[in-house]
Automatic annotation (TrEMBL):
Native organism: Streptomyces yatensis
Lineage: Bacteria, Bacillati, Actinomycetota, Actinomycetes, Kitasatosporales
Basic residues composition-biased segments: 9-24
Protein name: Uncharacterized protein
Region annotated Disordered, chain positions: 1-24, 120-153
């Protein structure tokens, strides 16, 4: 009786896979590239979260489908997710919302201070937004022309803005 590998034909074929067999997106070939690229992080995470050794996949006691499911559902704080997505993986929805709240509060305080400052006092500096991972543009803050020319909004501009 032929073994499992002989039935599938993958042991006799170059690169270990028959043409068209699991070579599609999400198949063993793309999983193999993913494992090769992030082997250490995956090995650590599989042992930490699931108690599964990555060598089981190489010894064919862990199926590619099961490995793909385990990898796909690793938590956001896993070493694999951090290695793959970088600093952005450390920022969840809560962190982004909190940064937006801080930015809006800083702008509101800046506007209040600008409107209530002494007529002859220097205008307050416009606030800078909280840096986001992967963002090099700080466009979420007040308009750049206002921040660079030292012009604070007048009382009439603020009244017009707040209606």
């Amino acid at each position: 009786m032929p073994t499992r590998g002989e039935r599938a034909g993958h042991r006799r074929h170059p690169r270990g896979v028959r043409p068209g067999h699991r070579a599609r997106r999400g198949g063993r070939l793309s999983l193999g590239a993913l494992v090769e690229e992030h082997a250490e992080a995956l090995e650590a995470d599989l042992l930490r979260y699931y108690g599964v050794d990555l060598l089981d996949w190489h010894h064919e006691t862990l199926s590619s489908r099961r490995l793909a499911v385990l990898v796909r559902h690793l938590p956001p704080d896993s070493a694999f997710v951090r290695a793959r997505e970088g600093e952005a993986a450390e920022w969840g929805l809560t962190a982004h919302l909190l940064a937006a709240v801080v930015d809006h509060l800083a702008i509101a305080n800046w506007m209040f201070a600008s409107a209530n400052r002494d007529e002859y006092a220097d205008p307050p500096e416009a606030p800078l937004p909280v840096p986001r991972p992967g963002a090099t543009d700080m466009s979420d803050g007040p308009p750049a022309d206002r921040a660079t020319d030292g012009h604070a909004p007048t009382a009439a501009e603020l009244a017009r803005f707040f209606g």
